[in-house]
Specification:
The protein has ten helices and 14 strands. It is an alpha/beta fold. It has a single domain, classed as Aldolase class I (TIM Barrel), CATH 3.20.20. The strands form two sheets. It has a twelve-stranded mixed sheet with strand order 7-8-9-6-5-4-3-2-1-10-11-12, with helices on one face. It is globular, with a radius of gyration of 19 Å. The two termini are 31 Å apart.
């Protein structure tokens, strides 16, 4: 398994299969690339199934154990089942989706090899959901979650971005997962550095403190130094699991990152928050993929605490050591 110079092994990859999406979520950062979503029709710059599988076969040589397929909305790819079925057997396969296409396809995805799924659900009320996603697809998402559970995906993790418009629905979402076996909740800190509108951000520590008061058990997870809160029971007694993803201004989070990302058009990305480290894989021959992957891992830097450091006033600023990093774009 390859490690960067900070001792962080790369054990997982996140592969964006498309930047297309049938939602228009107000907080979307499209895997850190910004709002680049295109039309609904397949685009020529998207990696083919063969290219995705070739990449996964190569990184499996380096001991990568997990792949998460993302987007955009990955289920807009009609060859998704094929890609999953051809993923190396040594890899755990998961996916993040808005859930609208799970009805009718969840069972086939499981048969292809999908093991876990994250479904974006930011509220328990249709009106609030529509305000955030700019769609009227609430009932379809609920149906998608049920389809995932019926197909045997376990757990089904609900993703909720916590910001000004959604924070008031956190207690309701926590009760929902506590009352429904098979569901878990992932509360994701809003990232204004990627999406703008810093006025939408809330103090995520308040959410931690509230959950700590409600929890029957608190578990520490090594990856990203995360905390898990078990509500309505413990990890051994069918409690509802709630986890917070809090990367903003968090050096500990970055110090425990073990992922490399792949853009929909075939660029390696060492850090979610950066786009000056995009590395092309050429024509995606196996040798080109190996070389690009080695270089990407070698150049990975913890964003907070290294790429960004605190100055004498306690404010974050770019570390001079990385100012001359050659920017690569996908144009």
């Amino acid at each position: 398994m390859l490690s960067d110079e900070f001792g962080r092994e790369v054990s997982g990859v996140r592969v964006s299969l498309t930047d297309r999406c049938n939602f228009d979520c107000v907080y979307c950062h499209n895997e850190g690339l910004g709002d680049t979503r295109g039309p609904m029709d397949p685009q020529e710059d998207e990696m083919t199934a063969d290219e995705v599988v070739r990449f996964l076969e190569v990184v499996a040589e380096f001991g990568v154990e997990k792949v998460k397929f993302t987007g955009g909305e990955p289920m807009l790819r009609q060859d998704l089942e094929e890609i999953i079925s051809r993923t190396p057997d040594s890899m755990e396969v998961s996916m993040t989706t808005n859930g609208t296409f799970l009805p009718g396809r969840a069972e086939g995805l499981v048969e292809a090899g999908l093991e876990r799924v994250n479904v974006s659900q930011d509220a328990m009320e249709p009106e609030a959901f529509a305000e955030v996603t700019k769609t009227g697809a609430y009932e379809r998402v609920i149906e998608g979650v049920e389809s995932a559970l019926d197909a045997g995906l376990d757990p089904v993790k609900l993703n909720m971005v916590v910001f000004e418009r959604t924070a008031g629905y956190v207690p309701q979402m926590v009760d929902h997962v506590a009352e429904n076996p098979g569901l878990q909740l992932q509360l994701i800190e809003y990232m204004p550095e990627l999406t703008g509108k810093p006025e939408w951000a809330i103090d995520i520590e308040r959410v931690h403190n509230w959950l700590a008061e409600q929890a029957d058990e608190i578990e520490h997870r090594e990856m990203h130094d995360r905390k898990r809160y078990w509500i309505g029971g413990t990890s051994d007694e069918d409690g509802g699991m709630v986890e917070i993803v809090d990367p903003v201004e968090n050096p500990t989070f970055c110090a425990n990152c073990h992922r490399v990302r792949v853009t929909h058009d075939g660029y390696l990305k060492g850090c979610l928050n950066r786009n000056d480290d995009l590395k092309p894989m050429g024509d995606m021959t196996r040798d080109e993929i190996r070389d690009a992957f080695r270089e990407t891992v070698a150049q990975r830097v913890p964003f907070y605490g290294e790429y960004m450091v605190r100055n004498g006033d306690g404010e974050w600023e770019m570390n001079d050591d990385y100012l001359d990093f050659g920017q690569v774009t996908s144009d």
